[in-house]
Design a protein that fits this description.
Layout: E1 14-18, H1 26-48, H2 54-81, E2 84-88, E3 91-96, E4 102-107, E5 111-117, H3 120-125, E6 127-134, E7 140-146, H4 148-160
Antiparallel strand pairs: 1-2, 2-3, 3-4, 5-6, 6-7
């Protein structure tokens, strides 16, 4: 999904548009599976009971299961889906939220250093924490960025603006030819 064109300045292009890494959804998906399994099991137990309270028990199980699914699965999923980390040719943007939105834009020209860190789990999943220091603020940490090494390298190249450092703009190296010397003695 492309980032909205009306939020960008003239000539600005999106280079990378990422959501947080999908590992953030492991626990919500586990909660969904456990809630559904437990709800079905309890519903089968309540259905087998010969009590006039069967329908009330089924309704209570349904309400608790639905509330758990919304709170433990749907809210984290929507939070993940509405979290955007966008890198353009001019700036780095982070946006999150549905009802209460928060945003930060960092112009490339203001970035003084960029680094990343990865723990063992992050290395296994291929993500990490990107740390951006701008000239006037405390370092900003963006957690669970997919392919954090590539994002780090791109921002580093853009901040340094060294055309010989860009992999896609490499200048051809001049070749020098040396005359062959005859090293034979004779």
């Amino acid at each position: 999904m492309a980032y909205p064109e009306d939020l960008m300045s003239e000539g600005e292009q999106v280079v990378a548009h990422k959501h947080s890494h999908w590992k953030m959804l492991l626990l919500p998906y586990l909660a969904l599976i456990v809630t559904l399994g437990l709800g079905i099991w309890l519903a089968l137990l309540a259905k087998d009971a010969t009590s006039p309270w069967n329908s009330i028990g089924l309704i209570a199980i349904g309400v608790v299961a639905l509330t758990s699914i919304v709170w433990l699965f749907l809210v984290p999923f929507v939070r993940w889906r509405t979290t955007h980390f966008v890198i353009t040719t001019d700036r780095v943007m982070a946006r999150e939220g549905v009802i209460n939105r928060s945003s930060i834009d960092i112009p490339m020209s203001r970035i003084s250093s960029v680094r990343f860190k990865q723990g063992l789990t992050d290395r296994i999943f291929g993500c990490g924490t990107l740390i951006i220091e701008s000239s006037s603020q405390e370092p900003l940490e963006f957690d669970d960025i997919p392919k954090v090494e590539q994002i780090h390298s791109f921002i580093y190249r853009e901040v340094n603006d060294n055309p010989l450092d860009d992999y896609h703009k490499r200048a051809p190296q001049p070749t020098q030819s040396y005359p062959q010397q005859d090293n034979r003695r004779g």
